[in-house]
Amino acid sequence: MVTLIELAIRGGHVWWVSPSYRMSTVVWRDLKNVLTNVQIDKNEVDRYIALPTSGTITVRSADNPDSLRGAGLDYVILDECPLILEQAWTEALRPTLADRNGGAMLIGTPKGRNWFWRMFNSPDMRAWRFPTSANPYIPPDEIEAQRASLPERVYLQEIEAQFIDDAGGVFRRVAESATAKEQREAVEGHEYIVGVDWGKHEDYTAITVIDLTTKTMAMLDRFNRIDYVLQRGRLAGIAARFRPRIIIAERNAMGDPIIEQLQRDGMRIQPFTTTNATKAQIIDGLALAFERGELTILNDRTLITELQAYQSERLPSGMLRYGSPSGMHDDTVMALALAWSGAQESHPLIAFEGEW
Predict the structure, then answer these.
(1) How would DSSP label each residue in 153-215?
(2) Helix, strand or coil, per DSSP, at residue 12
(3) What is the reported pTM?
(4) Which of 175, 237, 270, 311 could form a cystine bridge with 168, CB 3.0-4.6 A?
(5) Which of 128, 159, 185 lies at the terminal end of a domain, its last residue?
(6) Other CB atoms closer than 10 Å to residue 103's CB: what's the count?
(7) pLDDT higher for 144 or 257?
(8) Which of 253, 235, 252 is nearest to 244 (CA)?
């Protein structure tokens, strides 16, 4: 921002480009605050500021790359570049710099080996990498807390600012963790927890049982194209064999009425509301368990395939969105993540007393 203001004071025409309109709103607000005591003309609609020196500052979003084409610029800043389409730079913004021999600053958190990575390594660019530890306002113990709580892939990318080859992949060490032996019923003295991801028709219902005593996956049941009455009966049968401490079941969409009926039937079941934030929490916890070798899973082909294909995507808001690739399912991943979330001491399990 200081760079843009200095150039505008000298009469330059400069732009700040964010991935989305929402993200550009923050920049526009901060820019106006910085220039509070400066005589300027501003246009709130076009987010355009004119200084007495004839220099201009414009804040734009890259939602529509074609809208960025226009007159020559002296400088442009692209913020959160991995979230901006490459064509916004190559076809729209870079040509606007040619007429005035302008410059550019590209900023962003690494996200795999994409066009931002290529620009970072381009001989035409000067490049710097600043890990979070370079920020003097962030306490070192906060960084250490992040190291302890985040999966290694996420920590290296988000905190160490490193370009990771498999930045889209979420789970590591999946195959080497597939050493658990299936249990058909409870082992005396062991405690169990169950995770359920509901589905119908094209989607699958997945039920995962984790042995809390040994931190191993004890059972996986996956099925589709059966009505909810039979699904409830199938879960009830598994619960009767393992007598779990709690069943954690997704409540979104069709889950709510099934859960209510199971609770009326006296089953120990805790609803889980899936949002982007809660999903990220349980997926990160499961990824961390794989990296630390805390959980072993069954050598089930469907489960391993879904885990290895599972991916993350950074949203314009900066948050990560988790999910399976197009055309694939994630039901076994979600059922395992739900069960594992209940295996953590920090999970607010509901306490029950008495017999089933």
Answers:
(1) HHHHHHTS-PPPTTTTB---STGGG--BPP-SSPPTT--EEEEEE---TTS-EEEEEEETTTT
(2) coil
(3) 0.59
(4) 311
(5) 128
(6) 15
(7) 144
(8) 235
Distant-in-sequence, close-in-space partners of 261: CB < 8 Å, separation ≥ 6: 232
| Per-residue pLDDT reduced to its tens digit, 205-231 | 899 999 999 999 999 999 887 777 888
Residue recorded with tokens 């062991």: 190
Q: Are residues 44 and 121 in the same domain?
A: yes
Among candidate residues 114, 104, 98, the one with its CA nearest the CA of residue 14: 104
Q: CA of 181: how far to CAs of 158, 216, 282, 304, in Å? A: 36, 8, 24, 15
Structure token pair of residue 211? 């042995």
Please provide residue 178's backbone torsions phi and psi, each rounded to the nearest 5 degrees. -85, 65
Q: Is residue 291 helix, strand or coil?
A: helix
Which two three-digit tokens encode residue 114?
């994409």
Q: Decide: helix, strand or coil at residue 338.
A: helix
Which tokens is 46 given? 């076009």
User: Is 144 among the domain residues?
Assistant: no
Cα gap 198→22, rounded to integer Å: 34
Q: Last residue of some domain: 67, 99, 128?
A: 128
Which CATH number characterizes residue 84's domain? Answer: 3.40.50.300
Please tell me whether residue 304 adopts helix, strand or coil conformation: helix
Amino acid symbol at 252: N
pLDDT of 66 reads 86
Q: pLDDT-derived band of residue 346, with 50, 70 and 90 as boundaries?
A: very low
Helix (H) or strand (E) holding 248: strand 246-250
**Are 196 and 87 within one domain?**
no
CATH value at residue 240: 3.30.420.240
Give percent of the chain with pLDDT exceeding 70. 92
Give the tokens for residue 260. Answer: 């209510």
Instruction: State how far the Cα of 5 lies from the Cα of 12, in Å rounded to an integer.
Output: 9
* Full domain range(s) for residue 336: 175-343
| 308 and 215 part of one domain | yes
